[in-house]
Known about the structure:
Elements: E1 7-11, H1 15-26, E2 31-35, H2 38-47, E3 52-56, H3 64-74, E4 79-84, H4 92-98, E5 102-105, H5 110-122, H6 127-139, H7 145-161, H8 169-183, H9 188-199, H10 210-213, H11 221-228, H12 230-240, H13 245-252, H14 274-289, H15 300-309, H16 317-329
Amino acid sequence: MTNGPYRVLIVDDEPAVCALIQDELRREGLHCTVATAPEYAIRLLDGKTFDLVITDICMPRIGGMDILVYARRKSPNCRVVLITGQGTRDLVAQALFLGAFDYLEKPFEAGELLAVVLRALHDEATLPALAGRAAAAMEFQGQAARVSLDSVLALVRAVEAKDANTRRHSEQVAHYATSIARAMGLLTRPIESIRIAALLHDVGKIGIPDHILTKAGPLTVEEFQHIYRHPALGAEILGTIGLFKAESLLVRHHHERWDGGGYPDGLAGEESPLGARIIQVADCIDAMLMERTYKKGYSVEKMLSELARCAGAQFDPKLAAAATAWGQSHPEALFLPGKTAPAYKEVA
């Protein structure tokens, strides 16, 4: 980002809205460029660098979400603020995941506009702040559990859509986790909580930059630090939504290890919640079975042997044994490369 004057691109198919925003920002000494056609905005983004893009979501042919993705791809340091109406609130959570800094809801006051713009240009946007905005956007969509769950799942699917290697990963982890929990004889209510937490366990990847999330080669130490933050960020997002406070704890601890060598809190043994330990095993099962750019998928036999080998170190020994027994008894229920779905799938 430049030291100033800051360069701002304003995109809206209503010239009056563009003029209003431009007048307010020029008074602050900002250099503004206006595009009333989204196609023109794309051409501008191809040829120029902007510190901030302010774009309406609903425009013909090319929408604000497209502008957002394009602007972030061309210049990762560019901040994007979306202008949304009541009818487009359902896109806000996804937009925040895709990299939007914040949003303004029509009609907005000049003071509100300036506050968001100045924050976008000067604030480093810490991860907790991003989590709060994402959670608030989800809450806008309703208090009913079903609506809220669908809202968060939209974020998870957006995460997985970025990387072909992780498509359907959360659904598969939820399948394994609920299957293991049932095999252990857990009651219906905790199983449902585990299922929801498993579906949402990677929502914290909202805070991982795209170039790290989709990197094909080895990660640097600094890049791993971003990865290590995603369970805590996911827990913060869900904890802000009252309906998911219980699940937030499972999400936070799904990368802890039995020997205490995991993250984010280094919990050992039963210090980590049972549901989190189940999701950790389920997550690793899916990671082992699936092909990645850097490895072939494990055979069922190799996956099961790894569960046994890592019992007492990475995994809770009782859970590893239960998962091994379930996998041996239900091999048809495992997701394998080349299979779109298992022959056996328990539906919650």
